[in-house]
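Dear U.,

For the methods section draft, I wanted the exact inputs and outputs in one place so we can describe them consistently. I've listed the two proteins in the order they'll appear in the manuscript figures. Please don't edit the token lines directly; just add comments below if something needs changing.

First protein:
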Amino acid sequence: MTPKAIVEYLDEYIIGQKDAKKVVAIALRNRYRRLQLPKEIQEEVMPKNILMIGSTGVGKTEIARRMAKMMGLPFVKVEASKYTEVGFVGRDVESMVRDLVVASINLVKEEYRHKITKDIEKYVLDKIIEKLIPPLPKGASEQKIEEFENASSKMRTKVQNGEMDHLKIEIEVPKRAFEIEDGNMPAEFAKVQETIAKVFIASPRENPKKEVTIKEAKELLKIEASEALLDLEAIKHEGLKRAENSGIIFIDEIDKVAVSSNGQSRQDPSKEGVQRDLLPIVEGSVVNTKYGSIKTDHILFIAAGAFSLSKPSDLIAELQGRFPLRVELDNLDEEVLYKILTQTKNSILRQYEALLNVEGVTLKFDDSAIRALAHYSQIANEKTEDIGARRLHTVVEQVIEEISFEAENYQGQEVEITESLVAEKLEALVADSDVARYIL
């Protein structure tokens, strides 16, 4: 997708923040551009990592989440505050790269599985037909073979159409491969632990047999078909390659590891130590995973933080230098909050309408009521902590809580949310800043 197309897609879900969207769109397009270059230049083109600065609830995480979903790229979102310096109890920063490799391999596996859907369906049907119609003995006459093929064809159609789903058959339940998915565990430890587990768990007996309906057998045999038909080595190789060249790691709460200059301890293992450990990964190093080693030189890192108690300059200088693109996100005003409620795809109002529709209640929001919701959200943000668009969830929930609770009494009716109802539910709360602090 071109940068313009990426921004247009993000506009459907996130209002405003044009600068942040443009920076992210160009960074994504540059991933594609780099892969079209000759090999010798490819190695020289490094990703321009991005630092997003903005208060909570303005869309930093949402931009990253939507971006990854749209592009189908290997993507992980991590919180910087969860990591500790190497040598202390907790997750070390290398585990974020191992998580990215797992995400990449799962992405590739799903793509391969989608490509061979027809082969998987054929494999499953063949197995079920074998159970329903015993195979012919060797040396059967041509007439018997023809009758067998006709019967198999009819049975296959019935199984495909779901006419036989209620019948029970006995199948061997495939054992799932034993895998350890602990991204915090060093690659060597994970391999040793898997080997030991296989030795103790492996049983000389065959797969256990189980009597299940044909409907259940279709799902269980898909696992066996995937294991039999997928080229796991090719998937592993492609997954590692994608993680290296197209991987994106979104590091949220980066401001929580910044050490402000006003006298805080600089020896905190969850702060400056984490920055020092993060530095070689962002600069480019080799991380060992149980699937193989991966170079982090061309992984795109996007860091985000509110920086309310600290400043970007409180990060160590070397780490600041590794995030050359900085973009500040705007705080949300009343007009933007109104647009978030009315213009975003699957906005919170559409969600509540759909939820209550399940109960047979038709919810309708007046335009003046929506304006009032945005207005009271803005006032609450000004009087208490500014939590951005997240305030809308609190405010809307407060207004329709009673209707939602007594939904059965409104069944088959259209319930109109008016400006006066919004004022009745919120005016007193917003006016009393002490109450608003706890309720809104």
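Second protein (the one for the lower panel):
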Amino acid sequence: MNKIVDKTAQQQFQKQKITLPIAPASFFAMTLGLAETGNAWRNATSLWHLPSYIGEVLEGLALLSFLWWLLLYCNKWIQHRKLAETEFNDPVQSSFLALIPESIILMAIAIHIYSQSIAISLFWIGSVLNLIYGAYKLSGLWTQERQTEHTTPSLFLTFTASILVNALAAGLLGYTNYGYVLLGIGTISWLIMDSVITQQLTVGGLGAKTRNFMGIYMAPAVILFVAYQVLC
């Protein structure tokens, strides 16, 4: 009788067990938005003497959101591996995976005023992952056929925007020469990718599901000049 009761209780517990939701890698953009707004508020604090705690709250929210989305992404590979592999191999959605190392870099910027050593460690982890993933995706462009509808502004995330954020953080943490190298890589890739994407926008347009990516199209120019200012 006790065995039956224990088995029933175990079955009920398994039914009530909390399962984590499935989230796309593009949700890391929320971390980017919070972190970059926090950085902007920090600068506004020094320029216009605005309340400093607002920027720190935004940075704290960015850190919490990063940990949450990272947990969900790791869980996706553990519990829903096929979905994770599909996203990783998708010619459009895989561009958003570049937001993960970029988020790590932004966490380094968020933390650097509290702990320089932790910030430097995070920066190098994010920076190396950023370059490795960019090189991997670039090799795919050389070796795999690509349909025209797969050419969207999301390409900027892998080859331009994340590299320029990498350069910005390098300058902020004192790695100026390394930052200039990254700035050059990001600028060249921006000019190349912009011509390719503009050609697609002019001739083929964007599909209904990818038209909201046009917000990404404006990002490289802003990040480029901010990174240049930091490095100078």
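Candidate sentences for the figure legend, describing the second protein: The two ends are 77 Å apart (CA to CA). The chain has a mean pLDDT of 91.

Thanks,
Y.
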